[in-house]
Design brief:
Keywords: Bacterial flagellum, Cell projection, Cilium, Flagellum, Secreted. With 501 residues, this protein is an alpha+beta fold. Among the domains are: 105 residues, no CATH class; 171 residues, no CATH class. 58% of the residues lie in helices and 11% in strands.
Length: 501
């Protein structure tokens, strides 16, 4: 037999369940545009008789067992992995595009334009070797060519410096996110122990992991307390309420590609930090320090530009042999003041004599020339009569030597089967190809990450249509329970009146 007041008790529970449902629905709808918010649902169950031996034929109503957030941890893990890969490619694509802008295209590059202008000046000089105005123009445009190379090298250096700053900032962000996640782990653990809701805390936690996954490749596991353990290349970054801090330090090993740049290590152990194989940090380091045909970065392209500058300078100064033909360089010719053995290009404004004293052989001498320091020699800067146009003493009108130099600038193979222009165009084409490949790869991976994120949203996101339906359902349930309360009130009034009589 049911309790006399069982109806009122059941109605009260029904009202409470409907009220909780309305509250959760309202909360969902108010957070429809909140980043990281996960839709919450009411879990409820029917209450059976008080005991198995109860003679009651009906249960005791409904009970709200929990309010749970709707989330797919599997989709979260897929998103974190894909987001890390996309962020790495985004970092690489951005800075490779910056490098590409430094080199320009084969038709619009400032370096190519200045080289062509300089070669044209030499051709003009060959028609009138004694013309002082033309000689001055040759000097001016040669200096412009050197300055363009200097500027390109400076821009590459600045790009590397910018990336280095990004590395430092990213490490600081990783530490910040790790500390916040560890703090949330502690709050979630305490809340779970006291049976309090952790839904909002877990949403904050997932949002932070989303951000962290963009910076570094991570592995994430969840404990039965709702805490996250986060690892990077097998080493714990976050474990419980502990965050393993990273720190940057300046690399002092001159043989390292990272010399003068920031290295990264674990602050507590001092061991080098392995960035894994994804994340923006990994992308920054790859472009900052890449120096191989498999991993091309600023260092690689700076070295290519240096090699171009020194190859051109040596060929121009010393001449080249192409096939069976030898083309004399500037040092082989004679100026209109009968000077010879003058090098046209040096570095840091050194004189020809100072250049030749900078090493014991040609390889060592020209290894000192880079794109950052190449210059016209002090000899030519001070006296354009020393521009060696002639092939013999006392022949001011002789242009045989300048003709050879023009060939070296224009159409003679100075390295393998490549002309000076070919050498530069190879660099331009390579960086353009790498930049384009990185951009395409990023777009594909980003689209994949967006697709997975959309899938996550379809699971955990708030739908206004669905919540409107839920609102109607809970309103109806509340109204029904309220009606039942009125009905039972009449029943109890009748019963009490009968007792009074």
């Amino acid at each position: 037999m049911a309790s006399t007041f069982a109806g009122l008790s059941i109605t009260s529970r029904g009202l409470n369940a409907a009220q909780v449902g309305l509250t959760v629905t309202t909360n969902n709808m108010s957070n429809i545009d909140t980043d990281g918010y996960s839709r919450q649902v009411v879990s409820q169950t029917s209450i059976g008789p008080a005991a198995v031996y109860s003679s009651s034929l009906v249960g005791a109503g409904v009970e709200v067992t929990s309010v749970d957030r709707v989330r797919s941890f599997r989709l979260d893990q897929k998103y974190w992995q894909t987001n890390s890969a996309a962020s790495e490619l985004e970092a690489q694509s951005y800075y490779l595009e910056s490098i590409e802008e430094v080199f320009g295209s084969t038709s619009t590059s400032d370096i190519t334009t200045d080289l062509n202008t300089f070669a044209t000046d030499l051709e003009t000089l060959a028609t009138d070797p004694t013309n002082e105005s033309t000689r001055a123009t040759v000097l001016a445009d040669a200096e412009t060519f050197c300055e363009t190379l200097n500027s390109a090298a400076d821009e590459l250096s600045q790009i590397r410096s910018d990336i280095n700053s990004d590395v430092y900032t990213t490490v600081e962000q990783i530490n910040s996110y790790a500390e916040q996640i560890a703090a949330l782990n502690k709050q979630i653990s305490v809340a779970t122990a006291s049976d309090a809701s952790t839904n909002d805390l877990e949403d904050q936690q997932d949002l932070l992991v989303d951000e962290l996954s963009g910076l570094i490749g991570i592995g994430v596991t969840e404990t039965d307390k709702g805490e996250y353990t986060i690892t990077v290349d097998g080493v714990a970054l976050v474990s419980g309420d502990d965050a393993n801090e990273l720190e940057c330090y300046t690399v002092t090993d001159a043989t390292s590609d990272q010399y003068g740049m920031y290295g990264i290590r674990w602050a507590e152990s001092g061991e080098d930090f392995d960035t894994g194989d994804s994340g923006a940090l990994n992308g920054y380091l790859a472009v900052r320090d890449g120096n191989s045909s498999e991993n091309k970065g600023v260092v690689y392209y700076s070295n290519q530009l240096d090699e171009f500058a020194r190859t051109f300078a040596e060929a121009f100064n010393e001449g080249v042999t192409s096939g069976t033909t030898t083309y004399n360089g500037h040092a082989d010719g004679v100026g209109i003041d009968d000077t010879t053995d003058i090098r046209f290009f040096t570095y840091d404004d050194l004189s020809s004599e100072e250049l030749m004293a900078s090493g014991t052989d040609m390889d060592e001498i020209y290894s000192n020339i880079t794109a950052a320091n190449i210059s016209v020699s002090k000899d030519i800067q001070e006296d354009t009569d020393k521009i060696a146009t002639a092939s013999s003493d006392g022949e001011e009108g002789n242009s045989e030597n300048i003709d050879d130099i023009i060939s070296i600038c224009s159409d003679v193979n100075v390295s393998g089967n490549a002309t000076i222009t070919d050498l530069y165009n190879v660099i331009v084409a390579t960086v353009a190809g790498d930049s384009g490949s990185a951009k395409n790869a990023y777009e594909r991976k980003s689209a994949n990450a967006t697709y997975i994120d959309t899938s996550r949203s379809s699971v955990s996101g708030v739908s206004s249509d669905e919540e409107t339906v839920n609102l109607t359902v809970y309103q109806s349930a509340y109204a029904a329970s309220a009606s039942m309360a009125s009905a039972w009130n009449e029943v109890y009034d009748t019963i009490l009146a009968m007792v009074d009589d």
